[in-house]
Amino acid sequence: MKHSLTGQVLTAQGLKTGTLHFDQQVLGFEEQELQGPQNLILPGFIDVHVHGGGGFDVMDGLEGIRGMARYHARHGTTSLLATTMTGPWDQVVEVLRDIKQASQTQEPDCAQVLGAHLEGPFISKHRLGAQPDFTLEPTPERVSEALSAGNIRVVTLAPEVPHAAGGIRQFVDAGVRVSIGHTAGNEQDALQAVELGASSCTHTFNATGGLTGREPGVLGVVLTSEMVHAEVILDFHHVHPLSFKLLTLLKPDRTLLITDAMRAAGLQDGIYDLGGQEVTVQGGVTRTLSGSLAGSVLTMDQAFRNAVQCGLSVEEASRLASLNPAKYLGLEKKGMLEQGWDADLVVLGPDLEVHQVFVGGTQVKQEIQPV
Predict the structure, then answer these.
(1) Which residues, by range, are in coiled-coil regions (predicted)?
(2) Which residue of the set 260, 301, 342, 344 is catalytic?
(3) Active-site residue 260, yes or no?
(4) 21 among the known binding-site residues?
């Protein structure tokens, strides 16, 4: 089915007013002079790190994966990586199989599930954050089992844990992006990981250690390594606006907006389950009973608005939410609205609120069903 949308369209040459024509792919753009405020027509958001939303969680299995993909589609996310929690190994492997199944079909009104982000269990027990303590070493046998089970696109791994070097090589050789995270390691550990092929950092500034003049640590390596991408949770609870500004100044083409959202996204304050443990949600902040931040209730459209609030232009914020993650994952037809590219797009009003979402040229229903 062919569609035409008129407004300010983000093209390769910047924002231009006119009409975008598309079916499953972008057919072309017709530049026109338009009067008055116009909707923004942008590439759909790509979230490489999301656990849940709308009452659903990836660890619930296939229906949970589809439910959270449906919820986030209404907020402009057109593609995502279903992200696991650290848990019993058999459960993690089973969920990887569910994610693989979800990635093989496109459900109506859902963001496209591109595959899995395996967050844990190959992390440090000293930097768990909100992850349950089911940490394991990335032995060749476990890595092989994980690779066989699921369509893994990204794996979070602490570079200092035993067998980390071999695990990084094994994942990289299989085409999986290795993301440094939940780590108590130092700059030497991180440098070795990058040399072995690690190419990103999981929720930068969180569970990655700090940076001083004498001890740059993991964060120093991430900020200064040209080829390392950096996830960031821009909800103003996990990261200060000035830290975000520093990140985008150093890595404008490598910063990735993510949500790290859990099942409570879109729901009322209360007590919810995250990886088998209770977390409280109050005023948009999610914490474990011990007080640690526990994921978020962020959506990609809110992260986009927050980036603009921090001083980024619409074009710059869109890059962080769409083109940068597309390039990071090697998606050749996503992240821009160019002729022949996938018609994944989000329409925002002048207030940057979501008006319409299209996944592969099909419009996503905006009414939110009760959970």
Answers:
(1) none
(2) 260
(3) yes
(4) no
